[in-house]
TrEMBL record:
Name under which the protein is recorded: 2-dehydro-3-deoxyphosphooctonate aldolase
Reactions this protein catalyses: D-arabinose 5-phosphate + phosphoenolpyruvate + H2O = 3-deoxy-alpha-D-manno-2-octulosonate-8-phosphate + phosphate
Keyword Transferase among record annotations: yes
Alphabetized UniProt keyword annotations: Cytoplasm, Lipopolysaccharide biosynthesis, Transferase
Gene Ontology molecular-function annotations: 3-deoxy-8-phosphooctulonate synthase activity
EC number: 2.5.1.55
Species of the source: Candidatus Magnetaquiglobus chichijimensis
Entry keyword Nucleotide-binding: no
Family designation: Belongs to the KdsA family.
Lineage start: Bacteria, Pseudomonadati, Pseudomonadota, Magnetococcia, Magnetococcales
Top-level enzyme category: transferase
Domain of life: Bacteria
Principal location listed in the UniProt entry: cytoplasm
Pathway: Bacterial outer membrane biogenesis; lipopolysaccharide biosynthesis; Carbohydrate biosynthesis; 3-deoxy-D-manno-octulosonate biosynthesis; 3-deoxy-D-manno-octulosonate from D-ribulose 5-phosphate: step 2/3
Localisation: Cytoplasm
């Protein structure tokens, strides 16, 4: 990454395009039938990921959604909702001492979510919603803004300006592919350099970039086998962090299973990516 950018502090971590690679990792959504089950699921996933990243030696942020509002079908699994989801995320943050990020979908969610987590994230579909972007930024936490699948990377400079107009300069931008034809996404690695020109740390979402929106008819599909290749390419360009959804058994996950990396493959992938990051940032 050739363009200088402001580093961003997220909890006790600092993310920057020239700093060692960070990882945003966790399941798509908080799973479980009641609060106890949901907390246990979150604890189990956080415990497993933390053990892996500690062995590899990469800084990380735990990610899980309390509500997946952008569903293909009205019957799609969405999660526990705002109140209970935040209770679970707060418990993870306290138990594991790890920074936490989650999505918001409406401006009204920004303040209550910011009171619990270390970073807010805005969905790609909603990156042009000025009220949402500015509410997220005004809440005072760092914000990871996902680039819309319909936007050229240079267009994200205006989105970053909207966010910074609130006085919050702790903004990150996230690449997650561009819509190509019907039901497919492609990643142009030039976009990572162009996004960096907005002066923000760049995040690459390696799992949603292999998504096939609506690819299973009533839910999104994906091609998990390409996650590693895209992640390697992005790290070779140079990014501040990778966004990787991961799960103990993705094929049984109620949401985005085809995109998520199984726990059993995560450590080897992170070890490889760490080595690539060290080489790319020494260049």
């Amino acid at each position: 990454m050739s363009t200088p950018a402001r580093d961003v502090q997220v909890g006790h971590l600092t993310l920057g395009n020239r700093r060692p690679l960070g990882v945003i990792a966790g399941p798509c959504v908080i799973e479980g039938g009641d609060f106890a089950a949901r907390r246990e699921f979150a604890f189990a996933t956080a415990r497993a990921i933390q053990a892996i990243v500690n062995r590899v030696g990469v800084p990380w942020i735990y990610k899980a959604s309390f509500d997946k509002a952008n569903r293909t079908s009205s019957d799609g699994f969405r999660g526990p909702g705002l109140e209970e989801g935040l209770r679970v995320l707060e418990a993870v943050r306290m138990e594991f001492g790890v920074p936490v990020v989650t999505d918001i979908h409406t401006p009204e969610q920004a303040e209550p979510v910011a009171a619990v987590v270390d970073m807010l994230q805005t969905p790609a579909f909603l990156c042009r919603q000025t009220d949402l972007i500015q509410a997220a930024a005004r809440a005072g936490r760092p914000v990871n803004i996902k680039k819309g699948q319909f936007l050229a990377p240079a267009d994200m400079a205006r989105v970053v300006e909207k966010a910074r107009a609130t006085g919050n300069d702790r903004i990150l931008v996230c690449e997650r592919g561009f819509a190509f034809g019907y039901g497919d996404l492609v990643v142009d690695m030039r976009a990572l350099e162009i996004l960096g020109e907005a002066g923000a740390p760049v995040v690459f979402d390696a799992t949603h970039s292999v998504q096939k929106p609506g690819g299973k008819g009533d839910s999104s599909g994906g091609e998990r086998r390409f996650v590693a290749a895209l992640a390697r390419a992005a790290v070779a360009v140079g990014v501040a962090a990778l966004f990787l959804e991961t799960h103990p058994d993705p094929d049984r996950a109620p949401c985005d299973g085809p995109n998520m990396v199984p726990f059993g493959q995560l450590e080897a992938l992170l070890r490889q990516l760490k080595r690539l990051d060290e080489v790319s940032k020494d260049a």
